[in-house]
């Protein structure tokens, strides 16, 4: 344990946890650990929220200042304002300019947080019971601080990468993702991307020990569709055979009852085969193993699709999330609309799903239109590259020997989709471990275990070295 953490423990700020105890002893990284803690507290205090007063550019400057103090030239750091936010790209030139760069990807914006709803002010970093509390603590300012500090530590140690390393943080990943797309376009010549806003480790709820670690190599496409029925309307005392609300309700019922095709790819197959060992429900565990071996097994599919945890990993899902209809209590509705939110399995276009929804609705008067626009894009799965998997395995097991490693496919959207859509493989690979019961990203009282700092640093030092040397 470093003097930094010993002092914190003595002050009652940190407690020894199974997560910390499981980490393998390593060379002293006191300076880097101290920098992580100072930088993450600085970032959490910055209100990098979309809208009036957005301070994402201030967070970019905090990263830039830390890098410059660590040896980067200002000319190698680009902070670009865009709309109400900004993004940052910092370059560490490699010894071989012919090699494509390694990109480390993340974001510095966070979702909104109302102080009235929180037990602690969301933009005041507070250390309590071995956790750092604050908006963005887990999503994803600790990882931003850790990855930045690891690069600074590598430079301090005299490391000279053969492959150029680019550190980038987008500024609107939680909202429109305009900067995410812009950055990917600028860095489309990259060899690969390590997205530190994906993957991560699970801690056992009872023991607090690491249960398994996941990396993700694909994600489903996020897309919203508007389904609409229009009608001339009229007086409610003179009903007509066709009613826009009834027609919309029929269309929504048909969509709600529709089962999309069962699908599997190498990532989801590996996920079900490995994650079954950590499922406490024997029936679900058996279904996971059966599905991994045979995705056509109807019984396994029924069981998994009845589970909110696993249904999204078996194919495309679409659900109605909002409805708006009518204009007066005593008038026939002239218009009825609903939002359909879809998470599309890789390999299908947004237009393909739009056309399918219109067919499934089976109401001629119902039209389905894409409501997402440029905020989302379909992307293929990244290849399961042996060099990347070996580097991630070595890095995570340096701190957590023997921890099971499970590949997975994310159901949400991240900056990775823009890289993958351009043909650049991207891998979600955060080293942060947390219990499900402590995970409050996007929610109230967001927190992250500070015991992640030392092993996270060792992970990043190993991973960045192996992928850039």
What does this structure look like?
The chain has 469 residues and is of the alpha/beta class. The protein folds into two domains: 305 residues, Aminopeptidase; 155 residues, Alpha-Beta Plaits (2-Layer Sandwich), CATH 3.30.70.360. The chain contains 14 helices and 19 strands. It has a six-stranded mixed β-sheet, sandwiched between helices. Strand 4 and strand 5 form a beta hairpin. The chain starts with a helix and ends with a helix. The N terminus is likely disordered.
Task: Describe the structure concisely for a colleague.
With 469 residues, this protein is an alpha/beta fold.
The CATH class designation of the largest domain is Alpha Beta
CATH H level, superfamily name of the largest domain: Zn peptidases
**Domains (count):** 2
Count helical runs.
14
The biggest beta sheet reads: 6 strands, mixed
Output the strand order for the largest sheet. Answer: 1-2-6-3-7-17
Q: What overall geometry do the principal axes of the alpha carbons give?
A: globular
State which percent range the strand residues make up. 15-25%
Provide the CATH topology of the largest domain. Answer: Aminopeptidase
CATH architecture of the largest domain: 3-Layer(aba) Sandwich
The residue-averaged pLDDT reads: 93
Percent range of helical residues: 25-40%
Please count the beta strands (DSSP E, at least 2 residues each): 19
User: How would you classify the helix and strand content by structural class?
Assistant: alpha/beta
- Tell me the Rg in angstroms: 24 Å
Distance between the termini: 29 Å
Unreliable segments of 5+ consecutive residues: 1-18, 20-26
